[in-house]
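Lab channel / #folding
Pinned by the channel admin:
"Please post every new chain as: sequence first, then the structure tokens as a reply. Keep commentary short and put observations after the output so the thread stays searchable."

First post following the new format, from NK:
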Amino acid sequence: MLQSPQRKTFARSALSLEQSRSLQKIPQLYLKLIVDACPSGVVVLDEAGKILQINDAWRQFAMDHGLLTDFYGVGLNYLELRKKAGDASLDEAEIAHGIRRVLTVLARDFHHQYFSRNSFNRRWIRIHAARFDLPGLCRVLVTHDDLTSTEQISDLRGNEQERLRLLLEMTRILPWEAKFPGSTYTYVGEQAVNMLGYPVEDWYQSGFWPKHLHPDDREQAMAKCVEYSNARDNYELDYRMIARDGKVVWLHNLVTVVRENNQPKTIRGFSIDITENKQTEAALTDMSGRLINAQEDERRRVARELHDDLNQRMALLSIELEQLGQMKEPLDLRARLNDLQNQAQEISADIHRISYKLHPSKLDHLGLAAAVKSLCQELSTKGSIEIEFQQRGFPANLPNDATLCIFRIAQEALGNCLKHSGASKARVKLVNNGKEVLLSVSDDGCGFDTESSAMTKGLGFTSMRERVRIVGGEIRIHSQAMHGTLIEVVVPMPHEVRN
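Reply from TO:
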């Protein structure tokens, strides 16, 4: 049958369309062959950034750098995959920006080098994105190459070891390994020399550890080591060792037990020098003990005053009142009543004095400035010293703990001035600037050595420092022989009470 011209034309058009589709597949096949043969890790993206194609090198790269997902990312958005893994860390945003420019035809290609955060042995990676226009479609190829040579890896590891060594030195940490049982060291870090003073080779001698344990800790430390190593995979242990110069060094140990056939064979750990922490704890314990003892001494003193003095005087007053009531014809009633009134006033004054020492009522009712001013006036009247008082920024709404702290320090400082300085004049300044309360107490007395034991261990100065520490303030003490003393205190105000 003869075909009409129209049917022939349609047949030629259909053939042309089929051939065109075949021709479009040829470049894609070549692209696949090239990608599969490429030694670099390659992903092929569409214009939206979706992964269409990968090669074997990319599969290995994805596994090594935390980019591993089902189908190695095929069907996922490449930039979202990278963002989730965070392989390039701080460089990730720059990489995403560069690849988007290629995807949106703002750039033909993009390349960048970064330090892989996720790779096990720290690798330098070069990433390159290029745009390829195929018949009827566009593709973007992203390649990933490992630039790190064996020498570079060695240098990186060397740098990391040096950083670790410096860190251990700065933080006074000693890495070690020992056999179990016996605790004979098989490895100790160089920090051992600075920590205890013994050469490293001495540590490897049998019996070094028990020999240099503090005698009071030796039996317990060895027993705990055996007990914990048999029962636990990880434990902590504190003990003291004797350094080469005779000093006592406290060590806090973090220990890991390595087992064979479920039996401990090796113990490894880090020994941390905590001597300063222990000394601080001991100092705080000692200070707390001395403060408690001082408090008990003060209570005993007040009890003696109440019992031996005021109680007896009150008993005598009571007897005299009783005798007065029994007199039928008193010779001089007015004189006797005046005498009894004077006794009662003296007793009342002493009760007020004792009460004021325990806690000044003016502090609660009139505030800090009035209480300190009253203290200065009272001491000036009773003592042989002229005390000048200056204040600014009061009255003020201050927290009770800060108010009591500042008053007690003023009380202690002026008391020391009267007892020890021999000063003829003193000056007290109290300033509230809205953010801090500043107290200064100065005198023209004999002064003292600020490095003396009275300064460092004296209960008065210790009490001052402790009070200031509790309220988050600072105290500075300046003194010089024959040039007087200056005590300065700064107490910060909480934000809610600042002016």
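NK: DSSP finds 16 helices and 15 strands in the chain.
TO: also worth noting, Residues 1-20 have pLDDT under 50 and may be disordered.
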